[in-house]
Amino acid sequence: MNGRTRPLPSVVREFDCTGGTIIAYGHDTYTEPLRTDTTDYYQNPLDMDGVSHCSRDVTMTRATIERDPDLYRHRSMSNVITLYDIPSRDIKDNAWSPNTWKTRFSLNYKGLPYKTVWVEYPDIARVCQEIGAEPTSTSEYDTPKYTLPVIYDPSTKTVLAESAKIARYLDETYPDTPVLIPRGSSALHAAFQYAFAQMVSQPALPLMLPATNNILNPSSEAFYRRTRESWFGKLEDWSPPGPIREKHWEELRAALARVAGWMALDDEDKPFFMGDTICYADITIASILVWMKRVLGPKSQEWARVKTWDGGKWGSFMQAFDKYEMVL
Ligand SMILES: N[C@@H](CCC(=O)N[C@@H](CS)C(=O)NCC(=O)O)C(=O)O
């Protein structure tokens, strides 16, 4: 074993599966030699080959568990859910994708342990077919379209694609965890998902897709550029700095203001969609916002601007998600 290592502290040892064994499918690999410059990197007990399979997440995991051990009451050594997600070349813990964050936030909010398998864009269809995940839609070429997130839950031997279906599955399968979609609100949630996608996700695309392309690994970057440019032309021309980009920001600001207005209808001060408790509609919003924060940069001027909108609502909204913003 090269590099300085030490065993995981006992609290994390119970989560060896969450301690950072990250398998990379695809053309780019994420295995990296153990870091020697910090004691915050721990030897993953599953690593027998002298290489740490990306232990970057352990620090955050350990801190989070120590802060809030109840989050992980469903822990077990081997029977954990696998979340299939798309990696990045320079986001701190890889995770950036808004749709997969819906499932990641859902799992984190429920305190269900899981491990992440990273899949590059060109490999998504093959990996989904190999593990038996259904396509989620039909592509522009009338072929089945496979997307992430996908989960595999070994305790029920279930493979499931599509973030909202996964949320419903998690609620049904783990009824003693915090509820994502309260009973009786499935229809409202579905309507909200649709409205939010049209109203907020769509105007975010020209601002966010070119920036997203820049944080992908080479094989995904080439795939993303080719597929997205077939929709609207060269990515760099989608939202160039200046009046066009300002107009896009204004559209997004107005869309989020409308959502803030909906949320204030019951009570000006309620932080979340259904009051004081997070539900899946909030997770949907947080997943778009975390994408913006991570891809534009948590310290970027653009993200700073979003946080101030609606009297600072979105900044404090995202602060409430800090403790669920982890990558296992
Ligand atoms: N409705 C799906 C959408 C999932 C989705 O579009 N995922 C993107 C990543 S953010 C994807 O896998 N795209 C594959 C591709 O573009 O080929 C869900 O919510 O799960």
From TrEMBL:
This protein's GO CC annotations: cytoplasm
A Pfam family assignment: GST_N_2
Gene3D superfamilies: 1.20.1050.10, Glutaredoxin (3.40.30.10)
InterPro entries referenced in this protein's UniProt entry, alphabetically: Glutathione-S-Trfase_C_sf (IPR036282), Glutathione_S-Trfase_N (IPR004045), GST_Omega/HSP26 (IPR050983), GST_UstS-like_C (IPR054416), Thioredoxin-like_sf (IPR036249)
GO MF term list: transferase activity
GST N-terminal domain segment(s): 87-178
Alphabetized UniProt keyword annotations: Transferase
Keyword Transferase: yes
Coiled-coil ranges (or none): none
Protein name stated in the entry: Glutathione S-transferase-like protein
Species this chain originates from: Sparassis crispa
Lineage: Eukaryota, Fungi, Dikarya, Basidiomycota, Agaricomycotina
